[in-house]
Amino acid sequence: MMNFKKLTLEDKDLFQRYTSPYTFLSCEYSFTTLYIWKDACDVKYTIYKNALIIKKRDFEGKYHFIQPLGYKKEDLKDIIEVLIKYKEENNIKYLFKDLEESFICEIKALFSNIDDFYIKEDRDNFDYLYEAKRLMSLSGKKLHGKKNHYNNFVKNYEYEVVEIKGEKVIRDVIEKAQQLYEEREDEDCMLYYELQAIKDIVSNMNKFLLKGIAVYVNGKLEAFSIGEKLNKDLAVIHIEKANKNINGMYSFINRTFIEKCFNDVKIVNREQDLGLEGLRKAKMSYYPLKLEKKFIFGL
């Protein structure tokens, strides 16, 4: 029997021991990602056969497992069979979500009855991967409009870029996040959970391996962004918020954050679009290098 424990900040070192041997391109296996959505997605974990088993629910309230971490190959079939039994006994919708293609191949090699399972691409959950140097240079015809927005901001506004640290900046970030949340007309409960996560992580920046910048315009905080390096080649942007009424604000913080904090990586992961039309359009407008596929795997 597996007993699952709610994810807390105290679990960070344990998770990093399990995730550090991997070079995921997906954001899903970052401790910070799991921690940000720990309440919204009811993230829980257990250890079985020395493997880290993570259970969560998606934004539609459907529970599933993500890829086990730290397992021995000879134990994987047993682990999956135990998870299948747990799924059936606990009315879990999917066996796995957020899977990378390499893990699908491992499962296929283990089960002769693979046709009894279904495998589905989860397009709304694909991560957007960008070439870091292009985000910094905004070079080329395709990104000409973004560069114009950036230049317009630089030319027309008095601004200051600061690191997210210190009591005043942290307080200003929280106040800005609260303001932007209250200005939203929709009542998306996930935005409430995101707001609480922002308050939590900016108050505990020193406990994460996070980088963050805030942009002040005429002395008022108008944008901020938070991310981290997952490995030497890959950074992920977890949070990006800005005053959309300031022309070029988003283009400025997008480029400036990479320049200041992640100029030594090759790839920047800007996470998924969740099937939201406006968000998909915005992410596609930067012409991703690749969409990192994720899969649903079930019975």
From TrEMBL:
Residues 26-296 form the Phosphatidylglycerol lysyltransferase C-terminal domain. It comes from the Bacteria. InterPro entries: Acyl_CoA_acyltransferase, LPG_synthase_C, UCP018688. It comes from Clostridium muellerianum. This is DUF2156 domain-containing protein. Pfam families: LPG_synthase_C.
